């Protein structure tokens, strides 16, 4: 199977999948947030364990659009391809279902994204403070609206 066939497999089997582009050996697919669990299970069940790795789960803040994007990236070793699934989350609904029960690697990615961006991962069993100090916890410092409070006198 080549990159085009890999892309077709997702577009044919994921209800809301929309191709955005293929660049080199990277496939970019947009899905509705309701389908991330379907994607997670589909990859888990349809591809050999040795040929797939959940590489990253992260967020991007777009305040001008009043939304954030979740990006889920899997590496398919056999095809030498990265597949990026993009999920749009409006500011008034910053939640998505957790995939950590399918992918252990998602556990800390989701925890970090929850803490840094404030996106709730429904069903995640351990969303609690682990990176930020008490002073920063709950302030979501990776959001573009976050204001750094800096006192130059403290640096002396």
Automatic annotation (TrEMBL):
UniProt superkingdom: Archaea
Domain NADH:ubiquinone oxidoreductase 30kDa subunit: 29-150
A Pfam family it matches: Complex1_30kDa
GO molecular function, one term: NADH dehydrogenase (ubiquinone) activity
SUPFAM superfamilies linked: Nqo5-like
InterPro entries: NADH_quin_OxRdtase_su_C/D-like, NADH_UbQ_OxRdtase_30kDa_su
Family according to the record: Belongs to the complex I 30 kDa subunit family.
Protein name: NADH-quinone oxidoreductase subunit C
Species annotation: Candidatus Heimdallarchaeum aukensis
Lineage: Archaea, Promethearchaeati, Candidatus Heimdallarchaeota, Candidatus Heimdallarchaeia (ex Rinke et al. 2021) (nom. nud.), Candidatus Heimdallarchaeales
């Amino acid at each position: 199977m080549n990159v085009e066939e890999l892309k077709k497999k997702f577009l044919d089997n994921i209800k809301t999948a929309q191709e955005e582009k293929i660049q080199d050996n990277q496939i970019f697919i947009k899905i509705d947030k309701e389908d991330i669990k379907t994607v997670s299970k589909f990859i888990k069940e349809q591809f050999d364990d040795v040929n797939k790795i959940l590489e990253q789960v992260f967020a991007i803040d777009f305040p001008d659009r009043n939304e954030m994007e979740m990006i889920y990236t899997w590496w398919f070793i056999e095809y030498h391809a990265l597949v990026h699934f993009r999920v749009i989350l409006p500011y008034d609904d910053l939640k998505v279902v957790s995939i950590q029960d399918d992918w252990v690697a998602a556990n800390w990615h989701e925890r970090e994204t929850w803490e840094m961006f404030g996106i709730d991962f429904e069903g995640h069993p351990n969303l609690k403070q682990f990176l930020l100090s008490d002073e920063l916890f709950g302030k979501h410092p990776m959001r573009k609206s976050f204001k750094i409070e800096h006192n130059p006198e403290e640096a002396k």
